[in-house]
Amino acid sequence: MAKSFEPETKSHNLIGAGTKIIGNIETTESIRIDGEIEGNIASKGKVVVGGKGKVTGEINCLNAEIEGVLQGKADVKELLSLKATSKLYGDIQTNKLTIEPGAVFTGKCTMGGTTRPDETPIQKITK
Fold first, then answer.
1. Within a 10 A sphere around the Cβ of 113, how many other Cβ atoms?
2. pLDDT per residue over 1-32, tens digit each?
3. Alpha-carbon 36 to chain mean position
4. What CA–CA distance (Å, rounded) separates 68 from 16?
5. Model pTM?
6. Could you tell me if 67 and 82 are in contact, meaning their C-beta atoms sit under 8 angstroms apart?
7. How many CA atoms within 13 Å lie on the side-chain side of 80?
């Protein structure tokens, strides 16, 4: 029997400019926001907040790229990229972080594993 070929399709979600959503968004795929969201976003993929995009709420995802405005927390499992046009007002929890010159970030950043610095004993290094 011949095997039928079914291409793997990955759907991408887009919230266009001029669109405002009030409420939470959950997706298993990537999402790009060029409009405005008032609510939390949970994605198992990548979240992109475009240059004209604005999110007021929390983002929880695998990877994120911020070009616009985020007012709230960002919990990114792998890589968070703050582009030169980005403005992030809130706390960050991520494994890796890139910040381009010109980006605005006001908040607290925790990187690496889930262990908080105040939970780990500090060892003195002597020479």
1. 8
2. 555 544 445 667 999 999 999 999 999 999 99
3. 15
4. 13
5. 0.80
6. no
7. 27
